[in-house]
Amino acid sequence: MCEEITGIREIVNRFRAGYLNRDPDALESFMDLFCDGGILEVIGTDAYIKGQGEWSRDKAALRRMIAGDWESWGNLRLDNETEVETLPYLGRHPTNTPKGF
Questions:
Q1: Per-residue buried b or exposed e for 50-87, using 16+ beta carbons within 10 Å of the residue's own CB
Q2: What are the structural domain ranges in the chain?
Q3: Percent of residues in the chain assigned helix, strand, coil, to nearest 5
Q4: Global confidence as pTM
Q5: pLDDT truncated to tens, each residue of the chain (101 aa)?
């Protein structure tokens, strides 16, 4: 379990660095944090219609959403301890929820 938490922290730190730096030249490598194919669903703060706007269901839509965030959104700050404790709940899906969650 400790190795898994360490891995999650590394990903969260890369995510945090991407949003802090907001370097358009680093967007492609930032997108490596997200899966290719399979189930991908990210719901942004301005989402209200599934699959439209900030409700991304594929990597191309997610890339557009992140690029927009980096160009015009306010400062995102992530708390190290809270985010790691919250992450297991964010991506829960009935077929891949770990035991104990």
A1: eeebbbbeeeebbbebbeebbeeeeeeeeeeeebbeee
A2: 2-90
A3: 55, 5, 40
A4: 0.67
A5: 688 888 888 888 898 899 889 999 999 999 999 887 667 888 887 778 887 778 888 888 889 889 988 988 766 666 655 554 444 444 444 444 444 43
